[in-house]
Design a protein that fits this description.
The protein is an alpha/beta fold and about 325 residues long. The protein has 13 helices and ten strands.
Length: about 325
């Protein structure tokens, strides 16, 4: 019996040593085939745009294809479920946003749990949002829009790319803090929502400034306010919503990369290091600053802590404001 136990201990030690050598070797060899980045949002939105930028730079650095695939629907749940069921080998990644930290509280029908079924890899960036209305709306500024909403409760609509998305939550937070009643019109993606507002089918949207600013600057929609603590350098003439009439209001959108839980740590660390190199490039920082996006550089551990804090933050907002999926 003692001999068997000693053999068992020895075998376990050999397996552990083999694994310790194999994992770093796997990271050195990674990637040796194409990597998919699943974007659970529609084409043309911030997640799609920045996933393609990151994928392009990773492809150049790691000499392997990084293919972006859009899997929108159900407030990002469809694409996220696909990644959750993927092999934890670093070849299927998730481009996620604060939609995911919101959904941990807002949506009870998910088959996954973010911190159970995924591992944090790296954040990408954060940016302010922009509140816009169709030019047909008889409100030239936020104060006039608030007065209009209070005179016509439940008669005006706002667009979003689905439940739990930053656009949905920003508008619900606005409703809660202003005591107004706008009707939520969810869309399959932010591009569809944007088109609805531009076409006048929906009156208002709070959208990422990185994608909506050019539309506002061209006059297709009217900008009423930005959602940050200070005015955006992209549209400095547009006041923040807080200064324009709703003190204390703030909302942002941020993006990040996660992988299925169980992805080897050396691969996660390698991806994190390469993504952080991209975010530190002077031309990336300059280009993104012009769009109103700020690179976020963290270790996987720091990003994990960031995710946990954001889940807690939005849980408090959702419960306090009584926000529900329609």
């Amino acid at each position: 019996m003692r001999l068997i136990l000693r053999l068992g201990v020895a075998l376990a030690a050999v397996l552990a040593a083999t694994l310790a050598v194999a994992l770093p070797a796997a990271a050195q060899d990674y990637p040796n085939r194409p990597v998919k980045i699943i974007v659970p949002f529609g084409a043309g939105g911030p997640a799609d745009v920045f996933a393609r930028i990151i994928g392009h730079h990773l492809q150049e650095a790691l000499k392997q294809s990084f293919v972006v695939e859009n899997r929108p629907g159900a407030g990002a749940v469809i694409g996220t479920n696909e990644v959750a069921k993927s092999a934890p080998d670093g070849y299927t990644l998730l481009m996620m946003s604060n939609t995911h930290t919101v959904n941990e509280t807002l949506l009870s029908t998910r088959n996954y749990q973010l911190l159970r079924d995924f591992t944090a890899v790296a954040p990408i960036n954060s940016s302010d949002l922009l509140m816009v209305v169709h030019p047909s709306v008889p409100a030239k500024d936020l104060q006039e829009f608030l007065a209009l909403l209070k005179s016509k409760p439940g008669e005006l609509n706002y667009a979003s790319s689905g439940p739990g998305t930053p656009y949905h939550m920003a508008a619900e937070l606005f409703k809660s803090m202003s005591g107004t009643n706008l009707v939520h019109v969810p869309h399959r993606g932010s591009g569809d929502a944007r088109t609805s507002v531009i076409g006048g089918h929906v009156q208002m949207m709070i959208d990422a400034i990185t994608t909506m600013a050019p539309t506002a600057q061209s006059g297709q929609v009217r900008a009423l306010g930005t959602t940050g603590q200070t005015r955006s350098s992209v549209m400095p003439d547009v006041p923040t919503i807080a200064e324009a009439g709703l003190p204390g209001y703030e909302a942002t959108i941020w993006l990040g990369i996660m992988a299925p839980a169980g992805t080897p740590k050396p691969i996660v660390d390698k991806l994190n290091a390469e993504i952080n190199k991209v975010l530190a490039l002077p031309d990336i920082k300059a280009q993104w600053a012009q769009q109103g996006a700020l690179p976020l550089i963290m270790t996987p551990e720091a990003f994990d802590a960031y995710l946990r804090k954001d889940i807690e933050k939005w849980a408090n907002v959702i419960h306090t404001a009584g926000i529900k999926v329609q």
